[in-house]
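INSTRUCTION: Work out how this chain folds

Token vocabulary: learned, describes local backbone geometry

RECORD BEGINS BELOW THIS LINE
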Amino acid sequence: MSQSIDTSAEAPATSMRTVIAASSAGTTFEWYDFFIFGTLTQVLSKTFFAGVSDTVAFIFALGIFGAGFAVRPLGALVFGRIGDRSGRKGAFLFTIVLMGGATFAVGFLPTYAQAGIIAPILLILARCIQGFALGGEYGGAAIYVAEHAPAGARGRMTGWIQASAAFGLFGALGVILITRTILGEAAFTAWGWRIPFMVSAVLVGISIWMRLKLSESPTFQKMHEEGSHSKAPYTEAFGRWPNLKLVLIALFAVMSAQGAVWYTAFFYTQIFLEKFLKVEPATVNLLMIGATVASAPLYILFGWLSDKIGRKPVMLTGMVLALVGFFPGFHLLMQTANPDLARATSQTPIVVIADPATCSLQFDPVGKAVFSTACDIAKNTLANAGVSYDTQKAPAGTPAYVKIGDVSVASADGAGLEKAALKTVKADVETRLKAALQAAGYPAKADPAKVNIWGVFSILLVFVIAATALFGPIASCLVELFPTRIRYTALSLPYHIGTGWIGGFLPFTAFAIVASTGNIYSGLWYPVIFTAISVVGTLVFLPETRGRSLDI
């Protein structure tokens, strides 16, 4: 096959800077909109899911965070088709308008106390609109930049699109921290959480203004002038085996790990530090801001490195680092962030001893489970406390109790009780268990004076390096993997299944696994398994794409 001339190489430097600035700015603001949900999970769970236990409310809030990701593949298909048939610019201009409106509206939603069940329904709707819009955003921005960039610099230049995720997360964390600091925690929890959503209107307005200045990508324009653009992107991308095979390779060899590694590094670590290690939210925000700032140049660095040595070795390095680093890294997080908890966990283990027939799975995604047996009440209380425990079988009929070292705390059976009476029973068990935990050295919160900030940050930085080494070259790799005719459609679907389903539901699923097993580290099996799948897929199936012509 003859190799066509790469027209993108002729783009002047000033034009390239404009392309990168406008594309990255828009993507940054869209990520900002999306990330404030993940960062405010604790607050939103109390605001929109009052009336259920803390654990169930937290799982609900994480589920809503994931709901926005669930619809991203649908947005990828809709906007991918528009982008392949009508042009890149129009598709990703509309996505930001749609997403900005949905995010701004969240700032005005009623709470559960004000509107009941309508409140979480409206929140879910807004979240789904956000996810639908973001499904068309990333592919358009990445393709637009890559189709302008010289072949030898695609990794570095699309690295700015990857870095926009860091800029967006930094913006979200920054606005939240500033608002929290000015208003105080009480006011922020009551109403101040709305401000970051409202601020998004200004950011989106700037992005729209910048994107209106862009012209169509030269690669698409050339294809459109020749009349060779796809009339049926879905059929070509998913109905023909050579293209479908590339979609599957992109999903399993690259995007499975990307979703797992990135969202573990930047989101699940926040949940782990705040929910399980009891670190103050403001401290967690500062740590994540630091990690995010450190990540921004790394995306571009690893994108540049992939231009020199290839996409595969750089991405594979990130996958393997995450694979071997997650379990020991999270154990080290406990020792550095909350040494009192680490000492208590080691010296005074917790065991729930109960008849297995009376124990339910501590996972209630629909909020209907009552958890009224003595075993369930004990486990639910420990899950809410965020501590690890083991379960030991007892003979049938044995009343459930909790052993905290050498101390035994009897649970209580609330089966068949009315709601008010059951609440009293649970409160009594919680009071006695919390007192026993405190006596055994389990801290209610991490002692700020004992938090090794630099130790925690160093561990987070290892996760960040893994995530950025994997994510930095991904845009250029995916763009080079697919033909121009179907690039928007074919690229966007696996990307958003990986980030949307695997990554987006990671916090929800990992936390649910912890709640059901009682082991605060068990949720890590979720990202480890998906990352292992991608390591094998990359080694065996993924071709090296560095330097490929995009005019095909």
Q: What stands out?
A: Confidence is low (pLDDT under 50) at residues 1-14. Residues 8-338+448-540 form a domain with the Growth Hormone; Chain: A; fold (CATH 1.20.1250.20). The first strand starts at residue 350 and ends at 354.
